[in-house]
Amino acid sequence: MKIALIAIAALVAFPRAGHADRIKVAVVPGIAVNLDSARVDALSQDLADALVAELDLDAVGGLEVRRKLPAEGLAPDCLTTPACVGDVARRLGASQLLFVVMVDATGTGAVQIDSTWVEPATGKSASRPAIDVPSIPEAKTRFAAAARVLLPDAPVRPKPKTGGFGGTMTKEIPRHFSTPSILSAGAAVVGLGIGIGFGLSARSKYGDCDVPGACNSSQKDSIRTKTLIADAGFIVGISGIIATSVLFATSGKESRLVVSPSPEGVSLAAVGRF
Predict the structure, then answer these.
(1) CB 73 within 8 A of CB 28
(2) Model pLDDT for residues 229-257, shown as the tens digit of each residue
(3) Is 209 part of any domain?
(4) What are the φ and ψ backbone dihedral angles of 116, each rounded to 5 degrees?
(5) I need a surface site. Which of 50, 134, 190, 263 has the fewest CB within 10 A?
(6) What is the distance between the alpha carbons of residues 208 and 203, in angstroms, rounded to a whole number?
(7) Within a domain: 257
(8) What is the pLDDT of residues 119-168, one digit of tens each?
(9) Cβ contacts of 164 within 8 Å, gap of 6 or more
(10) Residue numbers of the domain that contains 204
(11) What is the DSSP annotation of 9-75?
């Protein structure tokens, strides 16, 4: 049976953006029961991440903190030895320590974590409620739920504000001429121009042929060709007008709600043109 002791150190970081006494939390590898060092580091890092997500502080964990402690690890009685506690606090620049014992009693992957909070500067200490982690995927969720209990004096991280429906509204986009609509409008102009031009020319030639014998077969074929080209031009022009109208009508977008989870659940509002 492997035995180790885990300590979580709360460190005071450099002042930043109005946080003169900002806490930095370090998850320190120490002692665990039936857990190898890799899993201890993984759980420690998960705990650090959860504390950062819930509380207004910085946190590190796993190997990054383990490297700062003695290579032989912490003494089993470090929690009850002021000199050891002070040494850990000095190595990490810590203002608070949270000693944690991790136990996998069944060997199934479920872990129970018992912790004791210590403030080295004053010698104050307090036990924290146990955290049960049924499986690795549930670790972060359990740690996040227990974050305020583990460090009750740490400020709570403000949650991002969302709209009244648990989401944010997208920007409204007015109707506009897009590149495809401009191209279709150009095609409409060209098509109508060809239709009108060849149509007028064919009409003029057709009038000249009203007199019997005034036009030969070649001239009549030319008139029919111009008529067909005019018809094709009108078809292209009308199609371009329809396409431009549709593209312009559908180019705008009203403000819409982007749904996101909220403490009250998820709500949905639909907005659109019909």
Answers:
(1) no
(2) 988 988 988 998 998 888 888 877 776 66
(3) yes
(4) -135, 125
(5) 263
(6) 9
(7) no
(8) 888 888 889 899 999 988 899 999 999 999 998 888 998 876 654 445 56
(9) none
(10) 179-249
(11) EEEEPPPBTTBTT-EEEEEE--BEES--HHHHHHHHHHHHHHHHHHBSSEEE-THHHHTTS-TT---
